[in-house]
Amino acid sequence: MLQISYRVSHFFGVVVILSISSVVIYWKSHQIRFTYSSIANPTRQQKTGIPIKACPKKSPYLVGPFVFHHFIGTLEDLNNKYEKYRPELGGKFKPLECQPRQKLAIIIPYRDRRRHLIDFLSHMPPMLLRQQVEFTIFVIEQDSPEIFNRALMMNVGYLEALKQDDYSCFIFHDVDMYPINDYNIYQCSTSPTHMAVAVEKWKFGIPYRAYYGGVVAYPKTVIEKTNGFSNLYFGWGGEDDDLGSRLAVVGLKFVRPPAVYGRYATPVHSKDKGNPEAPNRFRLLNDAKRRIWYDGLNSVVYNVSKIEKKKIYTHIHIAVDRQKLEESVELKKREP
Ligand code: UD2
Ligand code: MN
User: Per the database record, which ranges form the Galactosyltransferase N-terminal domain (predicted)?
Assistant: First the structure.
């Protein structure tokens, strides 16, 4: 990409300076600079200080299908791999060649999946940079010993990310799902989007039509409308269907990318010890539509035990008191 800039110079002769990335012409009191930059060396444009244009609607760097590989190495190796993209502390990545259109927070409900997390952190940034997206990955880890609660970690991730920056788009993401086509763009439209439509563990399909698990993208406005997500699904299952019910209550429909784009690799894994099937999930689902007004962002309670701003992502540790949380939801329900 070629950029041209002009400024007044204190030098009065005629000089032409050539370098690999730029040509600078000094003529009388004028300085004209022609700069060439490419995504392969994204730091150049930052140094020039030239104001950059809005990113195009479609990134020129997309490659279509690509393969998921396990990463052999440590988090430290990944830090080095991404140094050239100069993420801000906490892992805020920005395309350096243009001004992104949205600020994306990727929220990962998490506990004790280090191998999956390293694979995620290895796999995602290159794709997101090709998509010219500004993004931060937030890993929201629920402290032990309470039973894992995925949707609760989604609420917490949303609230905590907004304390860090004014994100406009939120993608809630399983740590063990890896997109394998970069035309599946990690941005929000005005509608909520279910992105995982061709999932390897279901032979690159979905288990049922209304399925809403794995990866969903919500603009901030939609999360406000649905009062976030339910706080009450402790254990595996049900919470994804609950998300779908909330949308119906506020009169919204989710959209999906075409199946050729919404493809995800999903490594086989066993069930986690701290996440047994939620025994009350069918009962909760039965009144999901009524609970939306009092079970969500307006009744969530939690404590942040630690925030770690790592080089390439932000790791937030959360302590949950189930009894307090359930009481808070109950109190909200009784409010006139
Ligand atoms: C399915 C859904 C998932 C969710 C879940 C039911 C797919 C592809 N995914 O996933 O979206 O609805 O069923 O709750 O259909 N996690 C941890 N540590 C734990 C437990 C869970 O990090 O101890 C996180 C992690 O991000 C994981 C996600 O929660 O990817 C979903 O849990 P899972 O992978 O055990 O459930 P799975 O694969 O059946
Ligand atoms: Mn899984």
Answer: 55-189
